[in-house]
Amino acid sequence: MCGRYVIEGYQELSERFQLRQIPFTLFPMFNAAPSQDLPVITENDEGERTIQLMRWGLVPRWQKPGQSASVAPINARAETLLEKPMFRSLVKRQRCLIPANGFYEWQRLDGRKQPYFIHLQDDALFGFAGLYDEAAGDASFTIITTAANDLVAPIHDRMPVMLSPSDEADWLSPDLDDSHAAQALLQPYPAAEMTADAVSTAVNNVRNNTPDLLDPIEPSEQPPLLEEPKPSG
């Protein structure tokens, strides 16, 4: 599961993801959450990568204009993508990357939920594997999840799919039109290249969006839990 993440390295975004331009102003998000408009990278048939803002929570194209979305999944399980009608048609041609510096996950600990910030050891930007769709002119996306690696497993049994740069290229490429080959790219990221830091429960409140959310703490330093994180799908 992935219900909150961080994207702050905008200075390196163009070079890291081979973007010709970023046509809007981006601000660091230290607590990116579902229903927000967030940067998403796609690649066109000419091989040019572009970035645009999309709503986190997939609304399918068959959604009627003005109709409330009864389901807008923020996550899609890698193992069952080709079994689910909402995702199956997107795997072939509507794949995307969601740039990030890390994500949050919560561990049940002594009767409460302890948040962790999980990221690469060098704090580098990476891309989540995602799918997108467009309904009534509005684009939206979902982040694909897989089984947790050895680092994340003690915290949660699922983790978002973090692609290596070489797999990013394959995932985005329109030349990859084999859905099963695309699905095969969706593996847990190597645990040895990642780290997890316990952080304050201030991240539970989506209104909090400041750099100190990333400050590591000892779980024993945690103040009483005042607000449970809301279910994120």
Structure, explained:
The chain has 233 residues and is mostly beta strands. It has a single domain, classed as hypothetical protein yedk fold (Alpha-Beta Complex), CATH 3.90.1680. It contains 4 helices and 13 strands. The strands form 2 sheets. Strands 3, 4, 5, 6, 9, 10, 11 and 12 form an 8-stranded mixed β-sheet that branches. Strand 3 and strand 4 form a beta hairpin. It is globular, with a radius of gyration of 17 Å. The N and C termini lie close together (7 Å).
Précis, in short:
This protein has helices at 13-17, 85-93, 165-172, 179-183; strands at 5-7, 29-32, 37-43, 49-56, 75-77, 95-100, 102-109, 112-120, 126-135, 138-147, 158-160, 162-163, 194-198. It is mainly beta. Mean pLDDT is 91; it is low at 224-228.
